[in-house]
Amino acid sequence: MLKKYYKKIPKQGVHKELKEKYDNFCDTIIHIDWDKILFNRISFITTATQKFINCKYLEIGCDNNVCFKSIPVINKVGVDPDRGGNVKDTSDNFFKNNKSKFDVIFIDGLHIYEQCRKDVINALKALDKDGYIFLHDMTPRNWAEENVPRLKDTLWTGDIWKIAVELSKTKGIDFFVINADMGVGMLKKKEENIIYHDDFKNLINLKFKDFLILNENVNYIDPEEGINLILSK
Predict the structure, then answer these.
(1) pLDDT band for position 18 (50/70/90)?
(2) Between the CA of residue 162 and those of 47, 70, 95, 123, 205, what are the distances in Å?
(3) Which helix (H) or strand (E) holds 15?
(4) For residue 233, what are the contacts with CB-CB under 8 A and spacing of at least 6?
(5) Which residue in 143, 145, 171, 168 sits closest to 220, CA to CA?
(6) Could you give the CA distance from residue 40 to residue 94 in angstroms, rounded to a whole number?
């Protein structure tokens, strides 16, 4: 649960200006300093890859390869249309033509709900049973980090938190969000055929203020618990 981290922004002049300038302004923030948490996405992904002999790894959205180059796997595919990875293509095109199965998939592409949910649905089809999917940027701390389109000069998670709401209701998987590195989604595929829980019509127009309510339906865990869950299953 994230509610223990909620904090109100002090009422100042800039507060009023922001309210008037942005329709999506919300004066509640989630007070978490990610820099003080020693675990990051690479910690969890690497732990998962070590559970498989000759692990097959896929990364969607590689950017500058910070994560892709750090994963200690020989058989890995990185998909990015602009830079990074080893496949220059969109995720849609990649999945359309893909015939391979993977043990671990990391999704860190476009941080917009509509696109990211397509990536998740396609990734579930390409994931072997007992495999893992990790997602980055699941926990916006304020309305600006969540805002779509991205605001200038701000960290950005976008609105992919909505996928966590859907995955929490999807059958045949275990799903958690780890409180580290801007929120790391962790999914384990327990059954071969998964039917994704479609709540698109109800979620599409929601904003950060709605996230503050709906995140109560998501299972948030500490980093140590996340590592232990991967190692124990």
Answers:
(1) confident
(2) 26, 28, 22, 17, 10
(3) helix 13-21
(4) 174, 188
(5) 168
(6) 27
Mean pLDDT of 109-132: 98
Preceding omega of 149 cis (within 30 degrees of 0): yes
Euclidean distance between CA atoms 219 and 174, whole angstroms: 10
The 10s digit of each residue's pLDDT in 72-107 is: 999 999 999 999 999 999 999 999 999 999 999 999
- CB-side neighbour CA atoms (13 Å) of 80: 18
- Could you tell me which residues come within 8 angstroms of residue 174 by beta carbon, excluding any fewer than 6 positions away? 187, 188, 190, 229, 233
pLDDT at 177 over 80: yes
Instruction: Write down all domains in the chain, each with its CATH number in brackets.
Output: 33-232 (3.40.50.150)
Listed range (15-24, 123-132, 169-178) with the worst mean pLDDT: 15-24
Please, which residues bridge with residue 132 across strands? 104, 188
CB 196 within 8 A of CB 170: yes
Nearest to 161, CA basis, from 65, 30, 34: 30
pTM higher than 0.85 for the full model? yes
Tokens of 94: 């990649």
Q: Region 161-170: what's the mean pLDDT?
A: 98
Query: How high is the pLDDT of residue 14?
Result: 63
